[in-house]
Design brief:
Blueprint (H helix, E strand, L loop, with lengths): L1 H32 L7 H8 L3 H7 L3 H15 L14 H29 L6 H19 L7 H14 L1 H9 L4 H16 L1
Helix pairs in contact: 1-2, 1-4, 5-8, 6-7, 7-9
């Protein structure tokens, strides 16, 4: 008897986890397609093939659904790993390697980043997520910047690299028809000017 009960409990837990995952998947798809502002709980429920009440059983409010969506999307789409360029000795090549990695990342995740940046002013739950990512970019820029720390040239290099690493900069340059090689050449020229 215990065996049957344990099996039923295990199967029920698996079913609940599958339902939860369907809800998170539906939320990610809708956020990418419509944006968080236009994504209602009803739309999530419809896309996941469940009732609204089922969504609320798994997530007490929209903020909880959003947090689950953001967490899952972040696990599937982590930003580039600095170990890809940290061992590059030449500072210019190290910066180029980091930028190339971030630009490839943005190309692969463009739709979600575009929606996030567009809607952040109107969707408060997006703001801490983008602030955390901005902090990551600031750390990367500080680590990559050549020059003596604290010097004017170093500060300008940090600001330039930070700007070059951002999604809006990549999106703007992409929109102007520049390929990655041209983007990197432009950033190199910016840095040469800054470091003079």
């Amino acid at each position: 008897m215990n065996e049957k009960r344990n099996y039923r409990m295990r199967r029920r837990a698996e079913s609940q986890e599958e339902t939860r995952q369907r809800i998170v998947e539906a939320t990610m798809q809708l956020h990418e397609e419509l944006g968080p502002r236009a994504t209602s709980i009803s739309a999530i429920a419809d896309r996941a093939g469940v009732q609204r009440l089922t969504v609320y059983r798994h997530f007490p409010d929209e903020a909880a659904v959003f947090a689950a969506c953001t967490g899952e999307w972040g696990r599937r789409n982590p930003p580039p790993d600095p170990s890809q360029w940290e061992s590059v000795v030449d500072p210019a090549k190290r910066i180029s390697a980091a930028l190339a990695a971030f630009y490839a990342y943005y190309a692969a995740t463009r739709r979600m980043w575009s929606v996030a940046h567009r809607e952040a002013p109107d969707v408060p739950v997006l703001q801490p997520v983008l602030a955390e990512y901005d902090h990551l970019l600031a750390d990367q820029a500080a680590a990559l910047a050549p020059g003596r720390r604290g010097s004017k040239a170093h500060k300008r290099a940090v600001a330039t690299i930070r700007h070059a690493l951002s999604f809006p900069t990549w999106e703007s340059l992409q929109g102007q028809g520049l390929d990655d090689k041209e983007k990197l050449a432009l950033v190199e020229a910016w840095l040469e000017g800054v470091m003079r």
